TrEMBL record:
The keyword Transmembrane helix applies. It comes from Paenibacillus algorifonticola. Residues 1-78 form the Aerotolerance regulator N-terminal domain. The lineage of its organism: Bacteria, Bacillati, Bacillota, Bacilli, Bacillales. The chain crosses the membrane at residues 6-24, 60-80. CDD domains: vWFA (cd00198). Residues 90-197 form the VWFA domain. Keywords: Membrane, Transmembrane, Transmembrane helix. SUPFAM superfamilies: vWA-like (SSF53300). It comes from the Bacteria. This is von Willebrand factor type A domain-containing protein.
C-alpha cells in the first residue's frame, strides 16, 4: 500500500491528545455508603495518584482513538498498486532475419540467436497472468501476423517454436509500425521485440514514433564486432584459358576483430574433391580478392566455400556461380584515362579497346566486332557528331558522367544514405561508407530505365534498355569518389559487365531468397516447377513456390525465388509433360544481412510521451497516470468513510448505555 499524502500523518498527534484528556478528567459518582471506613480506600488511591489507572475499562475512549486513527489514515489517501496489465494486449515482434541464424557467443553448440529468442519468449510467457492477450508478429519483406489476440499461451509457444528464418530482405520499419497500429487506442498495451539488433534500417526505425510501450529482449549482449567471415563475391571468367581451364575470382571479407586463416575451396558440380583450393590470411576488418585457376571447363556450376575457423554466420560462407556461354566480350572504352575501371574490366574477362573520345572517330569497319561501349566522360558534344550518334544507336552503351565537366545540371547529395533496388548489377553490394560528392541530374534517364542506386536522395546509377539493348548510366565520376578503393568496386564492375553482356545465358543466375525476379520461359513451356539441388546450413525449403511459377507463366508476372539459400533447378515441361528445359538458380541470403554482422545497432524509436514527440504528449501521459492513482485513492476513501460511520454509531450506543467510563 502507498500513500498520496504521507504528511497528513501529522494529524495523528490528535490521538495522544485524546488520551491526555481522559487522564486529566476527574469523575465523581454519588453513592450511598454504610460506613465512612470505605473512604480509606479512596484516599489511598488518590495518594497513589497513578494517572494510567483512569484508562482502565474505557471503551468510549478506545472507540474515539480508533475513529481518529481511521480519520488520519483517510487524510493520508492510501492506495494499493497492482499489475494493471492483467488482461492487456502484448504484440510479440520476433526478428527472424538471416542474421538471427548466427550462433550464440560460445559457438554453434549454444544454438542460434533465433532459438535463444524463442526461449526468452517462453520465459516471458510463463510470467504473464492468464487472460493476457498475445499477438505474434514476425519480420520479413512484408511482416506477417501469426496469431492475433490469443489468450492460450501454450498455443503461442507452439507457434513460436515453428517459426523458421527469413533469409530475404527485411522491412523492420513496417514490422514495428504494424505492431504499434495493432495497439492503437488500447490502454496498457506493449510491444515485445525479440531481436539481435543487427538492422540495416535502424536509422529509419529510430525515426518512428511509437505510441505503445516498447520492451526489447536481445538473445546476447551487444558485441563490439562479430566472428564472421564472408564470401563477398564469386565470379567465373568468360574466357577459357589456353590450357582448357577456367579461372575465377573470389572476394573474401573478415568482419571479426582478429586476423583469420581461411581455407578457400572451389568445387565443380557435385564432385566431392575441390577443383582448386587456397589458404588465405585476412587481417581484422580486412578483405582481399583471390584468383582461382584450373577449374574444369565442362562444369555446369561452381561452388566456393570457406572453412577453417569458427564462424558465427554460415549463410555467407558458400557462393555459387555459373560459367558464361557467351564469347569473350570486346568493349570499346572511350576514356581519357581510368586505370581502376580498366583493371576491373580485366577481372571481368572483358577485352577492352581503349580510345580517346576527343580524337577518335567511330567507323563501321572498326566497331563491327564491338559488343558494347563504355563512354567515360561528357557525351553532350559527342551526341551532336553523326558517327558517335550511329554508334550509340547501334550498340549497348554504358555511360559514366563527369559532373565537373558536363553542361548538364548537377547537384550534391543531401546525405550519404544509400537505397538499392533489386537488380543483377547491385547484387552483393551495399555501397557502405562510399562517398559521392556530386551527381548529374539525368533528366532523360527515366524514359529508358530506372534508378537502381540512389545516393543521398539522388539517382546515382540507372539501368534499363533502349530498343532491347541493355543500357547503364552512372551519374557520378568514379575517380572523384572513393568507390574504386572499396572492396565492392570490382564486384560492381564485374556484375555490370556481365549484365551488359547479357549475363550467363545457360542458367538463371543469382537471386535473393524470396525475392521477385523476371523469368523468361521457353515458348513451349506449359508447366514449370522448382527442384532442390542443395541448401545451406541444414535448412530445408518446405514448400517451393511452384504456384507462383504457374501464375508467372500465365500472366507474365515476376517469379519468386525459393526462400532458403541454396541451389535450385527450374524444370520446364510442355503440354505433354515432357521436360523441355532445365536451368539453375543460385539463391543467396540478403546481402544486407551479411553486411550488418559487423555492427549491432541501437533500436530506439521515439516514444510517444517522450521529449522527442512533444511535451504535450508527456503531460497527457502524466495526467492519465495521476487520474488512475487518484481513482485508486478515492476507492480507499469510500471504505474508510464507511468504517468511520460505523464506529460513530457504536460510540453513540456505548454513550447511550452509560459505559463512557
Amino acid at each position: 500500500m502507498q500513500l498520496l499524502s504521507p504528511l497528513s500523518a501529522l494529524f495523528g498527534l490528535a490521538l495522544p491528545a485524546i488520551v491526555l484528556m481522559y487522564l486529566f478528567k476527574r469523575t465523581y459518582m454519588d453513592t450511598e455508603i454504610a460506613s465512612h471506613m470505605l473512604w480509606n480506600r479512596m484516599l489511598r488511591e488518590q495518594e497513589a495518584n497513578r494517572p494510567w489507572q483512569k484508562l482502565r475499562t474505557r471503551p468510549l475512549m478506545l472507540l474515539q482513538l480508533l475513529a481518529a486513527a481511521i480519520l488520519v489514515l483517510a487524510l493520508m489517501q492510501p492506495y494499493l498498486t497492482a499489475d494493471s496489465r492483467s488482461g492487456s494486449h502484448t504484440v510479440i515482434v520476433l526478428d527472424r532475419s538471416a542474421s538471427m541464424t548466427a550462433a550464440m557467443p560460445g559457438g554453434s553448440s549454444q544454438g542460434s540467436m533465433l532459438a535463444a529468442a524463442v526461449q526468452q519468449a517462453e520465459l516471458w510467457l510463463s510470467e504473464q497472468p492468464k487472460g493476457e492477450l498475445i499477438t505474434l508478429l514476425v519480420t520479413g519483406e512484408q511482416p506477417r501476423i501469426i496469431l492475433s489476440k490469443e489468450t492460450d499461451h501454450e498455443l503461442v509457444l507452439q507457434q513460436l517454436k515453428t517459426i523458421t528464418p527469413d533469409f530475404g530482405t527485411q522491412d523492420n520499419v513496417a514490422a514495428l509500425s504494424l505492431a504499434d497500429s495493432l495497439l492503437a487506442n488500447e490502454q496498457g498495451g506493449q510491444i515485445l521485440l525479440l531481436t539481435d539488433g543487427r538492422w540495416q534500417d535502424a536509422d529509419s526505425v529510430n525515426l518512428l514514433t511509437l505510441h505503445a510501450k516498447l520492451e526489447q529482449f536481445k538473445p546476447a549482449s551487444p558485441q563490439a564486432g562479430s566472428n564472421n567471415s564472408a564470401i563477398l563475391y564469386f565470379g567465373i571468367h568468360a574466357a577459357v584459358g589456353e590450357d582448357g581451364k577456367r579461372a575465377g575470382i573470389v572476394t573474401l571479407r573478415n568482419d571479426s576483430l582478429a586476423s583469420k586463416q581461411l581455407e578457400l575451396a572451389v568445387y565443380a558440380d557435385k564432385v566431392a574433391e575441390p577443383a582448386a583450393k587456397k589458404s588465405v590470411k585476412l587481417e581484422a576488418g580486412g578483405w582481399t580478392s583471390v584468383d582461382i585457376n584450373g577449374l574444369p571447363e565442362e562444369a555446369s556450376y561452381y561452388t566456393a566455400k570457406i572453412s577453417g575457423v569458427t564462424d558465427d554466420y554460415a549463410a555467407d560462407n558458400i557462393a555459387y556461380q555459373f560459367p558464361s556461354v557467351s564469347k569473350a566480350q570486346q568493349v570499346l572504352l572511350a576514356t581519357s584515362g581510368n586505370l581502376f575501371l580498366e583493371k576491373a574490366l580485366q577481372l571481368a574477362g572483358v577485352k577492352t579497346i581503349k580510345v580517346d573520345p576527343a580524337q577518335y572517330v567511330p567507323s563501321k569497319e572498326h566497331v563491327k566486332d564491338i559488343d558494347w561501349v563504355i563512354m567515360d566522360g561528357d557525351t553532350v558534344k559527342l551526341r551532336t557528331d553523326k558517327s558517335w550518334q550511329e554508334l550509340f544507336a547501334s550498340k549497348p552503351v554504358w555511360y559514366i558522367d563527369h559532373p565537373e565537366a558536363t553542361q548538364e545540371e548537377t547537384a550534391s547529395p543531401a546525405n550519404s544514405r544509400v537505397a538499392l533496388a533489386e537488380h543483377p548489377v547491385t547484387a552483393y553490394l551495399s555501397f557502405e561508407d562510399t562517398h559521392i560528392g556530386r551527381v548529374v541530374k539525368a533528366k532523360d534517364a527515366g524514359t529508358w530505365g530506372e534508378a537502381i542506386v540512389t545516393y543521398g536522395g539522388l539517382p546515382a546509377i540507372y539501368a534499363g534498355s533502349v530498343q532491347g539493348r541493355p543500357q547503364l548510366r552512372f551519374t557520378f565520376d568514379m575517380q572523384s569518389s572513393d568507390l574504386p578503393l572499396r572492396p565492392e568496386f570490382p564486384v560492381l564492375i564485374v556484375q555490370a559487365a556481365d549484365w551488359m553482356s547479357g549475363g550467363s545465358q545457360a542458367q538463371l543466375g543469382t537471386a535473393d531468397a524470396g525475392s521477385a525476379f523476371q523469368l523468361a520461359f521457353l515458348n513451349e513451356t506449359a508447366k514449370a516447377k522448382w527442384e532442390t539441388i542443395e541448401t545451406i546450413g541444414g535448412y530445408s525449403e518446405k514448400s517451393l513456390p511452384d504456384s507462383n511459377l504457374t501464375a508467372a507463366l500465365a500472366a507474365q508476372e515476376p517469379a519468386v525465388a525459393p526462400a532458403v539459400p541454396g541451389l535450385y533447378r527450374l524444370i520446364e515441361q510442355n503440354a505433354e509433360g515432357e521436360t523441355i528445359g532445365q536451368r539453375m538458380l543460385a539463391v543467396t541470403a540478403a546481402s544486407a544481412e551479411s553486411a550488418s554482422m559487423s555492427a549491432t545497432a541501437e533500436i530506439k524509436p521515439i516514444a510517444a510521451g517522450s521529449s522527442e514527440s512533444g511535451q504535450k504528449q508527456a503531460d497527457a501521459g502524466l495526467a492519465a497516470g495521476s487520474v488512475e492513482t487518484a481513482n485508486a485513492a478515492n476507492a480507499f476513501a469510500v471504505w474508510l468513510a464507511l468504517a468511520l460511520l460505523m464506529l460513530m454509531l457504536v460510540e453513540w450506543e456505548v454513550y447511550r448505555r452509560g459505559n463512557a467510563g
